[in-house]
Amino acid sequence: MDDYHYRPITFEDVELHPSAMAMLLLDSLIPSLSKQTADWIFDFRTCCGKLCTSPSSVCEAAAKELLEKIPNYRSAILSDISSRIECEYSAEQILEFWNEALAEILRLARVADTHCSWIAPIHPKDPIQSLEDHADFYARFLKATEKASDGD
Which domain range does residue 151 map to? Predict the structure, then answer.
């Protein structure tokens, strides 16, 4: 599995399989997801080098909803995994990794105090390697946004 695109996410101090980074695909494959779950699954993926947090109730609800709905879309999910993810694992194995990760998230969210946190490691190819890099990027982003809005 490509270690740049698929990194182990540590959720509440428990390391999940690197393929969990690709669970964002579920958002496009399960059309009936709640907005809260769709937002959570997007945020779940954006944790490389950044500690993410969410209320434990949101993590619990999202994991529960995904675990309940995955069986209804199993064939579409397996087909999409096969066509999009090239690695040494079968689509069946990856879906099993996802189910295990979601079950673990559900379990951990149920015992968390108020919030859950997760993070994935920074990769040497990442353009942002430190808090200073992030601050510089954000400052440039705000400046570009100001220039774009001045032109309206």
Answer: 125-152
